[in-house]
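Protocol step 4 of 5: obtain the predicted structure for the target chain.
Materials: sequence only (see below). No template structures provided, no constraints applied. The aim of this step is simply to have a reference model before the mutagenesis design in step 5. Sequence pasted as it appears in the construct record:
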Amino acid sequence: MKPIISKDSTVYFGNECYNALNTYLSSANHSKICILVDNNTHEYCLSLFMSKIEGEYDIEVIEIEAGEIHKNIETCSGVWNALAELGMDRKSLLINLGGGVITDLGGFIACTYKRGINYINIPTSLLAMVDASVGGKTGVDLGNLKNMVGVISESEMVLIDTEYLHTLPINQMCSGFAEILKHGLIQDRQYWNTISDLSQLQLEDLDIMIYDSVVIKNNIVKKDPTEQNIRKYLNFGHTLGHAIESFYLTHPEKPTLLHGEAIAIGMIMESFLSTEVSSLTKDELEEITTIILATFSKIDIDPEDYKAIIELLVYDKKNENGNVYFVLLNTIGEAKYNCTVPEELVFKAFDYYASIQ
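Step 4 output (structure tokens):
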């Protein structure tokens, strides 16, 4: 597959990605290389990655605990200190080997350590391959508020090797599929049609699906790298999805929700809002709901929690001048941004989701 070139980075695929990596490492003359992993990718992915490196380099490994709950400044502080103790200087390289938490957090650490060192993302989850590792967004959560601290700065390269997906449990694969569905909904009706029927997809189709999804995201990001306008499309499902995810993160008595599971709920609710204040049809809403729930189990959200979740919307990063902004659909494959929605309709969106049989 041809590499996908973005503004300041390149995404490589399959075996070609390691050729690109080894060429880069042999010419870049880094003083030290550090690989950031979590306890899962250390066990299941590191040996595969190390077997692909050609040449002798001074390589260190830093491991953090897996999970969104560890995507915070405290973890960053621990890694910053570890980098300093290892003698990492401004000519060093950080390689982030992991899912969305590792690529988001690792990218932020690299961008801020000694005011910026080079980094490479090697996503090992479907979610990170199609979303988190592409586009230069880095950052961490502030308490239960998602991605509130961060910078936009692209990695030297992104390496996508679907061999790592063999290590993933099914719920993690589904979590990534939410972002693939999102790309079809906001940008490409034909792509949505292709990915909507998983029963027709073969394993070898996964590489093409990921490639096409990255193309969609990259085309948007290249036109609007700092999210001033159309990059906001990529937040479809995330206004309510992030609020739900944040609420569940801080209520351990609730079911654990992966990012994609929360975004799937958000996409259904925001599709409902699209029928109320935009031009999405009821038939399209039913189609979206059916397709999403064919992959994601419906979650019971206690009506007593609606208000607390809605109150979290004020912290959404898209907000301006005190307004809560949504990305909504005109139709499947066409979105619009900076949409305001009356609060009573947001409550109705929760009721719609609850009413689904």
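Step 4 remarks: The longest helix spans residues 205-223. The CA atoms of residues 276 and 285 lie 11 Å apart.
Proceed to step 5.
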